[in-house]
């Protein structure tokens, strides 16, 4: 329950406010309200659990992904239980679910989403379906375990760690270079549903696993650069950026004929200025205070133990949550036995590397910016 409250406090307030904003935008810039049930499913973040585009792409289209996240949050307590001993069967089981949905979609001859309707497509069963994406989430949790296990073997010098990080980043770019032709080839041999799954990110899982394990050690120049003040700030407002960018784009495309005929470069700069300004205001006025209110309220009445701060990213030290959250499917394991490592004090980290309960650990290096709980 502690974990669910902390995660709901992170995503729900911004989602609800953006949903409210859509009602004040002029008609043509928003998706028409077709049913109160669609509104209810969006408000409860269950729209992606319904495999029809009228549902999972309704209102703020990009919110389908946090609907998938909401499903993951509910599944997380089951998946995290004894993960170090059970990962070997949980991971293939979730992959089997994905393969089953691909097989069903192939058998039914399902194609891609084309326009909002109530037809069943491979996009609904595979791309936006939380069951089909559960493997990726579970894999992220297993990567967190692998990162901890690899830590003793990756105690490299600053120079060697930087070279390793550059190599890991190059692997990601190389993977991205071959991903599209590979996906097309597989799709031509097996069918579109398989290509849909690969194109949704499956082709990149190995290279991303490598870069997460390498960067989570925080020993090289690239990984430590993520702790700069500018990167921390972008990390703070990134969720608001994600939730607002499509709303702004829809407004622009609906009313661009009435806007000044400026060059594309000027409009692009203006878009980013509006996006960052509105995202900052959303983070400052909605996300941060709402999260503090919910988490502190539950901590007071429900004894929520989510660490020393309600913020997952704090200025003054590197973003230890950014790698840790991504490494378990963009979710933090604050109350479980798996703790996300990142930029915390190296002295304290090495001291507590094999300690299962880090919540009472105290950093022996007060200047290290320790983040061990």
Short description:
By secondary structure, the protein is mainly α.
Q: Could you outline the blueprint of secondary structure elements for this entry?
A:
Blueprint: H1 2-22, H2 36-43, H3 53-56, H4 64-80, H5 83-108, H6 122-127, H7 130-150, H8 158-190, H9 192-199, H10 205-215, H11 221-225, H12 229-255, H13 264-302, H14 320-327, H15 346-351
Helix pairs in contact: 1-4, 1-12, 1-13, 4-7, 5-7, 5-9, 7-10, 8-9, 8-10, 12-13
* Portion of residues within helices: 55-70%
The value of Rg in angstroms is: 22 Å
User: Which runs of at least 5 residues are low in confidence (pLDDT < 50)?
Assistant: 304-373
Structural class assignment: mainly alpha
Q: What is the β-strand count?
A: 0
DSSP helical segment count: 15
Could you please describe the fold and organization of this structure?
The protein has helices spanning 2-22, 36-43, 53-56, 64-80, 83-108, 122-127, 130-150, 158-190, 192-199, 205-215, 221-225, 229-255, 264-302, 320-327, 346-351. It has three domains: 31-225, no CATH class; 229-344, no CATH class; 345-373, no CATH class. The chain has 373 residues and is mostly helical. 36% of the residues are buried. Helices cover 64% and strands 0% of the residues.
